[in-house]
UniProtKB/TrEMBL annotation:
Any matching Pfam family: SLT_2
Highest taxon above the source species: Bacteria
Keywords from the named record: Signal
Domain Transglycosylase SLT positions: 36-325
Protein name: Lytic murein transglycosylase
Signal peptide coordinates: 1-20
Keyword Transport: no
Length: 405
């Protein structure tokens, strides 16, 4: 498990948001720029000790440069949190559904082969592909080696990005990738499936047999690599991701976040979204209400957790799962995500501070409503006779004495 979770971080390198002013960022860019030559000199010795040749270093190191925009993006702090409707509706679109169906037909032979080999059905591979790069339409245009070098020479996560840069040079050396070809996200994620270098090195597959695993130019390699990665993350063959469900009147919302068997959820009155009885199967599931009790409800099975090892966001996992369902013919959600007010991070931080003051431990106020904060929020809501769904609605802000708008 430790190996799996380590590699998930390596795949996406999701930023740990920093609260930094424009002046702070300018000063940090100046420091990285000033330290860059010495940093690269030290890096070269470390890279050579891990098998990067002098020829590779000569080819790349002298051309590396600081990318100011990378530091800016790494320090970026979004002012507002995203609502589920805002996130979901931008990602599970009719266009993506239609393109997914077209690619399902176009690559059917390959996808069937991958499903048999790795146990990951075609629709999920297509959903990940669509979510990550619009089916290869946008793979990122940042120079990966420059981005990684910039972050490796920055103090915040130097050790992590130093390892990623070394791995990226090893990939260039192994596959003869020129620097100009290695383009991707600002944090160094690459190709159709947006793999970080460490994930690329561990899970990329040469499926087309041309002698190299090329995640930029080979759709076959990219889809096979995604299937290989998901299999190693623990994908359960012949199981769904989860499903939209319907909750009964008087439902006990204290069960949110708990792992229960399907039979236990049945006893609580949970049904499929169309009102039919949940399937009978020896499986466990967790209930999710991404928009609170007024929005759609979902149960996630083991594969939902696998999706979250790819990207730790509940919103992302629900979007991947539902997009996969739509690609193979399912309809839209039975209960559409409601339009809700976006909360600023400062508002969420105030909410966390107030919960702590009232004895409901929400952890360090950081403006991010994680699982610990939601659990504390549910306890507070229950104490005030509110629906304990862990969602920061207007009634909850009012009960906390915080302005909600």
């Amino acid at each position: 498990m430790f190996k799996k979770m380590t590699l998930v971080v390596a795949l996406f390198a999701a930023p740990t948001w920093a609260y930094a002013t424009e002046t702070d960022v300018t000063q940090e860019i100046a420091k990285v720029t000033a330290d860059f030559p010495q940093c690269l000199q030290s890096f070269a010795e470390q890279a050579k000790s891990q098998g990067v040749t002098d020829a590779t270093l000569r080819t790349h190191l002298n051309n590396l440069k600081v990318v100011n925009r990378v530091i800016e993006l790494d320090r970026q702090q979004p002012e507002f949190t995203s609502t589920f409707a805002g996130y979901f509706n931008q990602r599970v679109t009719d266009w993506r559904v239609q393109k997914g169906r077209e690619y399902l037909a176009e690559h059917r032979e390959l996808l069937n082969k991958l499903a048999q080999q790795y146990g990951v059905p075609a629709q999920y591979l297509l959903a990940f592909w669509g979510m990550e790069t619009n089916f290869g339409g946008y793979k990122g245009k940042m120079p990966v080696l420059d981005s990684l070098a910039t972050l490796a020479c920055d103090h915040r996560r130097s050790a992590f990005f130093t390892k990623e840069l070394i791995t990226a040079l090893q990939l260039s050396q192994k596959y003869d990738f020129p620097a100009e070809k290695m383009q991707g996200s600002w944090a160094g994620a690459m190709g159709h499936t947006q793999f970080m270098p460490s994930a690329y090195a561990s899970y990329a597959v040469d499926a087309d047999g041309d002698g190299k695993a090329d995640l930029w130019n080979s759709t076959e390699d990219a889809l096979a690599s995604a299937a290989n990665f998901l299999q190693h993350l623990g994908w359960q063959r012949n199981q769904r991701w989860g499903r939209e469900v319907q909750l009964p009147q008087g439902f006990d919302f204290n069960s949110i976040g708990q792992i229960k068997s399907l039979s236990e959820w049945q006893k609580l009155g949970v049904k499929e979204a169309n009102g039919s009885v949940l399937p009978v199967a020896d499986m466990t599931a967790t209930l999710y209400l991404p928009a609170g009790h007024q929005g759609p409800a979902f149960i996630g099975y083991d594969n939902f957790e696998v999706i979250k090892r790819w990207n730790r966001s509940d919103f992302y996992a629900i979007s991947v799962g539902h997009l996969a369902d739509r690609i193979v013919g399912a309809g839209k959600l039975a209960k559409a995500p409601p339009e809700q007010q976006r909360r600023s991070r400062e508002q969420i931080k105030q909410l966390q501070q107030k919960l702590n003051e009232l004895g409901f431990d929400a952890g360090k106020p950081d403006g991010i409503l994680g699982s610990n904060s939601r659990q504390s929020l549910r306890a507070f809501q229950a104490s005030k006779g509110l629906i304990p769904d862990g969602f920061p609605d207007d009634d909850t802000f009012a009960a906390l004495g915080i302005a909600g708008s």
